[in-house]
Structure formats: C-alpha cells, structure tokens
Amino acid sequence: MTPIDPGTLMGPLWTLLAYIGLGWLAARRLAVDPRPVATLLIYLVAPLTFFRGLVLGGPTPGYLLLTAALFVLASLIAVVVHRLARHSFAPPESALLAFSAGTGNTGYFGLPVALVLLPPQGVTLYLFCVLGVTLYEFTVGFYLSARGQFSVRQSLVKIARLPLVYAFLAALLVSGLRLEVPGAVMQGLAAFPATYTLLGMMIIGMTLARVTIRQLDWRFIGACVAIRYGLWPLLSLAAVLGLQALFLLPGELALALLLIGVVPMAANVVVVAMELGIAPEKGALAVLITTLAAPLLIPFYLTLAVRLTGL
C-alpha cells in the first residue's frame, strides 16, 4: 500500500478550495444565483455522470452487492440521525443534518485520494461503494431532506421526478442486456464528471458569499463534524474488522471502505439544501470546515486504522 502522507491530500484539497473560491467570486462579483446551478446539477449533470460511471464500470453481482450495502448503511445512519435530531433541531436543520449524516465527499475529494492509495482493482471497488452513497443521496436522503419542508406525498413526488434513479436503472439495463452505447455518446458524456465536480464545489462558494456572522450555528456545525469525523470512521473501522472476522477480506476493499468513512462532508449537502430551500448557508459552512480539516485527520485515521486491521 502507498504510504499515507498529508501531501497526498494537498492536491485534491487545493483544487477543491480553488473551485469554492471561484464560486464565491461568481456570486460576489457577477451576482450569479446558485439556485439554477443546483437544479442543473440534480436534474441533468448528476444523472448523466452517474449513468456513464456505471456503464464504464461493468457492474457484476459482487460489485452491485457493495453498492447495495453502502446504500443500506447510509440510509440507516440517516434515518437514525433524523429521529434523534428532530428532538434538538428545527425541522429544516434536522432534515439537513440527517441528509449529511448518510453521505460524504466520496467523489470530489475521495476519488483523487483513492487513485493515489489504491491499485486499479481497489479503485473499481471504491467506485461501486461510491455509487451506493450517491444513490442514497437522491432517494432516501432527498426524501428525508424534503420532509423538513414538505408532506410525505409531496416528498415522494419530488423523488419520483429525480432522473438519477432512472439513470441508474437505465445503466443496469444497458449492462444487463450487453447493449453497446455508441462511442460518440460516451465521448460526449466524458465532459460531465469534471463539470459535476466543478459546479458542485462552486455552489458551496456561491452559498458562502451570502453567509453572515449571524448565520453561524456552531451547534449544528458541531453535530455535522461529529457525525462525519466521529461516527463514520468508527463504523467503517468496525465494518472492516467484522468482515475480516468472517472471511478473508481483500486489502484493497478494506482500504476503500476505510476511506469512505473519513472523507469530508459532501458538497451535495449544499446542492440539495439549495434545491429544497433548507438552510444551505449552514450546510456550506459545515462542508467547508470538514474539507479544511481533511488533510490533518485523514492520514492520522487511515494510518491508525491500517495498523488496527493489519493491512
């Protein structure tokens, strides 16, 4: 395994911070409204990115089992946090906290790190884990977020309108029937992952441009940080140790699961909050803080976890 060095994380970190800075400038100097950008991400860029990644990945039953396992884990964490948080936070904040609890920046931040730390097979395993988290975001996570503002029926209607679910089913159909996607189509879709990353991080900066000191909610931010850098690392470590006790767990899969557990908060927390109108400023601050802390916390956690699991 490649040694885990804080320098490994600085490249992805500075790139993401630069995108956030561009978003801040766009909102401050050009008066760009982030709401249409959030809608564009949810209804167009994310589904096409998701479809392309799944088709290229060549899903197998084993890979899809990883996707399903991460989807179930993320959903359970979110549901439990939602039940607990609604006693201490207002409905919008508890809904946003629940959404953020089930996900992390597994793509924008985690993937560049995975490419450095993992062999090609490990990167593929990591990507199918990421697909499970992403599927959670746009199904269970979106529903819990919508429930902070809307009725059950309205929330379900909003989910039914999300094209990412249909993109997932379409990709499975294409792979299952061994249909050939034209090369020109796949080449055209190649631009969407980078667009997804760029716009997803810029929208954080656009939202931060509107933040005032009065909107700082340290109780909410503290809860987000505790879940992301407290609960998730412990759960991922426990999952790896439990699986190792049951059977011979491949080292690359173990490291992929450990990395899933320690990435910063997801930028999609802000995207979904913006789309649904549920405290996006608070979400943006929490995402920024966890992203800035990542270069210090991730090497420490992964080094400790690798020793404990014997990788």
Helix-strand layout with pairing:
Blueprint: H1 6-29, H2 34-57, H3 61-85, H4 91-101, H5 110-117, H6 120-137, H7 140-146, H8 152-160, H9 163-176, H10 183-189, H11 192-208, H12 218-246, H13 251-260, H14 268-276, H15 280-309
Give your account of this protein's structure.
With 311 residues, this protein is an all-alpha fold. The chain has a single domain (6-183, 190-204, 215-309), classed as Na+/H+ antiporter like fold (Up-down Bundle), CATH 1.20.1530. Helices cover 78% and strands 0% of the residues. The protein has 15 helices and no strands. Helix 7 (140-146) crosses helix 8. The chain is globular and about 50 Å long. The model has no long low-confidence stretch (mean pLDDT 84). The chain crosses the membrane at residues 6-25, 37-57, 63-84, 96-118, 124-144, 156-177, 189-208, 220-247, 253-273, 285-306. It is a multi-pass membrane protein.
